[in-house]
UniProtKB/TrEMBL annotation:
Pfam families associated with the record: HypA
Keyword terms, alphabetized: Metal-binding, Nickel, Zinc
Name listed for the protein in its UniProt record: Hydrogenase maturation factor HypA
Alphabetical GO biological process terms: protein maturation
Originating organism: Deinococcus aquiradiocola
Gene Ontology terms, MF aspect: nickel cation binding; zinc ion binding
Keyword Zinc: yes
Function: Involved in the maturation of [NiFe] hydrogenases. Required for nickel insertion into the metal center of the hydrogenase.
Binding site for Zn(2+): C73, H76, C89, C92
HAMAP family per record: HypA_HybF
Length: 120
């Protein structure tokens, strides 16, 4: 499943960040998902717990921040696009061939637990 491989990628990145910071568990993560990316947030949310099993992210809270699509209209500047209308300015209908924002899939925030200190 598409979203499972995405979840695994996110987990790999989050684990790398954690390891750079002492290798503690990841308690929570926030992911920015563009509404125009091919990712279905519900599917990602559903796939995540099983993918995180056995990793530093096991049991972590996953928050998904939805990022609307934004295009650039020659007349109206930055405009929010609707998926129904496609790459067209909602005000004048002109084509906005470039997606300025909305196709991202990125790790935004991580909440790390303190690395476990060894009793000695
Ligand atoms: Zn326009």
């Amino acid at each position: 499943m598409h979203e499972a491989s995405i979840a695994l990628d996110l987990i790999r990145v989050a684990e790398a960040v954690s390891l750079e910071n002492g290798g503690g568990r990841v308690l929570a993560l926030t992911v920015r998902v563009g509404q125009w990316s091919a990712v279905v947030p519900e599917a990602l949310r559903a796939a995540f717990p099983a993918c995180a099993e056995g990793s530093l992210l096991e049991g972590a809270r996953l928050s998904i921040q939805s990022v609307p699509g934004v295009g650039m209209c020659a007349v109206h500047g930055r405009v929010e696009l609707s998926l129904q209308r496609g790459l067209r300015c909602p005000a004048c209908g002109a084509r906005t061939p470039e997606l300025v924002q909305g196709d991202e899939l990125e790790l935004d925030e991580l909440e790390l637990a303190e690395p476990e200190l060894e009793d000695a």
